[in-house]
Amino acid sequence: MKDEELNEIMNRVLSATKGPWVSWVEGRDYDSGDSFIMTGIEKGQDIWNNSRGEDIYLSGATIADQDFIAHARQDIPKLLSYISELKQQLEKKK
Fold first, then answer.
1. Where are the beta strands (DSSP E) in the chain?
2. Please, which residues have CB within 8 angstroms of residue 90's CB and are 6 or more apart in sequence?
3. Rounded to an integer, what distance in angstroms lies between the CA atom of residue 42 and that of residue 60?
4. How does DSSP assign 15-26, residue by residue?
5. What is the pLDDT of residues 19-62, one digit of tens each?
6. What is residue 5's DSSP assignment?
7. Are 81 and 17 in contact (CB under 8 A)?
8. What's the first-to-final CA gap in the chain, in angstroms?
9. What are the residues whose beta carbons fall under 8 Å from the beta carbon of 27, sequence distance 6 or more?
C-alpha cells in the first residue's frame, strides 16, 4: 500500500467524529430505546457528560454491522500505527 493511500485513510480518521465510539444495542446493552453508536466518550466516563459527541443511528444495519462500524473508529488508527511501525522496521533493515 502506498503512503498516499495510508494518508488518505488517516485523513478520513481525523475528519470523523471524535472517538472512541461504542455500539449500544437495545436488548443487549440496555433495556429500551433505539440501537445507536455513542461517540466521544471514554471508558468509565459518565455517559451524560458534556464532552460526549452526537449519537449515530444506522438505518438497516445489522447488529454486527453496527458493532463493526463502532469498533472501526478505534481499530483503524491502531492498524495505521502498526503499519507505520512495520514500515519503519523495514526501512531500518535496508
1. 21-24, 36-39
2. none
3. 27
4. HSPPS-EEEE-B
5. 999 999 999 998 988 999 999 988 788 888 888 899 999 999 99
6. H
7. no
8. 18
9. none
Supply 25's cell numbers.
Answer: 444495542
Query: In this structure, which amino acid lies at residue 52?
Result: R
pTM, full prediction: 0.85
How distant is the alpha carbon of residue 17 from its chain centre?
9
Q: Which residue has the cell 523495514?
A: 90
Residue 23's nearest CA partner among 37, 5, 10 is 37
> Distance (Å, rounded) from C-alpha 66 to C-alpha 26?
12
Q: What is the DSSP string of 54-91?
A: --B--SS--HHHHHHHHHHHHHHHHHHHHHHHHHHHHH
